[in-house]
Amino acid sequence: MKADSVKIADGVYWVGALDWDARDFHGFAVPGMTYNAYLVFGDEKTALIDNVYDGFFPEMWARIEDAFSKEDKEIKIDALIINHIENDHIGSIPEFLENCPDVECYCTQAASMGIKRQHHCLADQELNVIKTGDTLDLGGKTFTFINAPMLHWPDSNFTLYNEEGILFSNDAFGQHICESKRYDVDIDPGYLELHSKRFYANLVQLSASMVLSKVAEMTEAGYLDNLTMIAPCHGQIWKQPGTIVDLYAKWAKGEADEKITVIYETMHHSTQKMAHQIVEGIMSEGVEAKMHFIRYDPESDILADILDSKAIVLGVPTMMNNPYPKIGNMLAYLNCVSPANTGVRKKAVVFSSKGWAGGAIAKLTASLTEAGFDVLEDEAIEEIYVPDDNDLEKCYDLGKKLAQMVKE
Ligand code: FEO
Q: How many angstroms does the Cα of residue 169 sit away from the middle of ligand 1?
């Protein structure tokens, strides 16, 4: 196949793969994906930073061939930097090693163990373990390694290319999108921020406290002093790196907007009617409201709206004496991602329509409390069968009251 590399700095090329067809990545709804890998030419050695997903090796290799051709050099890759061992970055490594059997591999201690459990064929592969502050000299060009455990896996690592001030951050600061252009400044900034937020909310926020400590550590060490670009392994390359560093700091601190996310399921439209009236009450106060119908909206979108909301409202019908089962996946996802990990507990209110026994309210309250929300139990609304005008007015008033709270 034929595929071009993209020169992003002197002797630095993007050689990744474009997954135009991806729509789901382990449950994350995506409009396509990008697996970024980068080739860096020093005076003496050439290094490849990261790899691509299973099935995309031919595309990466075609771009590598193109980069060597542009540099007017024979193909020879001396070093492979493995910043993270999730399969979207190492899936193609066995094929890559067939082409480059003598390459020196570099990765963190955690990665050195994990990669052999992912690719059993690498059981005998020699790996050089890198720690924060370790360097690699390519001849006139040097890397400094910065271990970044839990951003977002224990094995995660950042690689700083010192001479050009490029931080190869792997997953951190990425977006799950697929675009024909490579830079932040090439695409609509609102779309870029939305997809950066989706990525953070779903993949990084569990480690919010570590985002703040890692940025502080890197600032103190001077690693960010001459930063010109952040080149993640997904999505656009940041030519304005301060934009995404500031957004990560905001999200990691739990700073939220005057915004409430209403999430609901319904069986016979009763909780749906209640949800609509709650949103009317929120809107009456001029507060932003986002509405999600659970059966249709991906959890990854709902998580992104929760991230910058000060409160959520969750409505689920009662089925027998339990929450309607379609909510189960959403609750499991919330628990998995832990939106409360910033230390800022968002407010939550639950509501339900029941036939007879009830029980959903207590169970939803317990689930949201476990997920880290500050559930306002006295504000819960539970109606019997179809809500009448008085019931709907209560819902409107709840929305209004919550909106007033988030404005305080
Ligand atoms: Fe893009 Fe954690 O893999």
A: 11
